[in-house]
Amino acid sequence: MPQKIQSSRILNEAQKVFLEIFAGSDMASDFVLSGGTALAAFYLEHRLSDDLDFFSHLPGHFPPTDSLRHWMERHLGQAIYNRIADRRQFSVSCEGVLLKVEFVPLYFSRLGSPVPVDGIYVDSLEDIAANKIIAMADRFDPKDFFDVWMIAKKTPLDIGSMVKLAERKHKANYRYLLHLERIIANPASLEAIRAVEVFDPHEVTSFFRTAVKKLALEAIPKISLNC
């Protein structure tokens, strides 16, 4: 892990304060930080992100919503609560900033063990990568495509490896579900991303144009030439 909480150049002060409080509580052992913020703050340092996304540590184990709300308000003051399907979303004022924190049950076993960092747990790179592929199939959010591009650029995981991780995790054929043409046709949608370094959106779309061909070739059954 390249960063600690306080030395992170990605996390803002509100996120740092929240994570420090969270790390000192009983809740820290129940949840694992994941998503784009975890990827950026603890692995790639590639973009800024405002929210904090947690999955429960174990499948089938999720604290009651009232317990989460009580904890948030006891430590951070009044919290605005919203539930969307299985997602528990809280908005709290922290360091003068409205911080969104989301808690989601874990439905699929992790590929790797969560990594302890300064009293909290962070999802493994493999799990975050797999979750990004799964998210890309479910929605169109340019940040997911940018994150996958950066994982392929900065780590040994290529797009094929990430798809295989997602398929191991969720037992679905994600290579057929990604609809990569959505980002290929919309390079301008990447311009809103708060990247740490300047990047060319067309480099991202070029990567996914190549990925379409790569995934298609990998999906073709190998034909034996032996008679």
Automatic annotation (TrEMBL):
InterPro entries, sorted: AbiEii
Lineage top rank: taxon: Bacteria
Gene3D superfamilies, alphabetized: JHP933, nucleotidyltransferase-like core domain (3.10.450.620)
Pfam families with a match to the protein in the record: AbiEii
Name the record gives this protein: Nucleotidyl transferase AbiEii toxin, Type IV TA system
Lineage: Bacteria, Pseudomonadati, Thermodesulfobacteriota, Syntrophobacteria, Syntrophobacterales
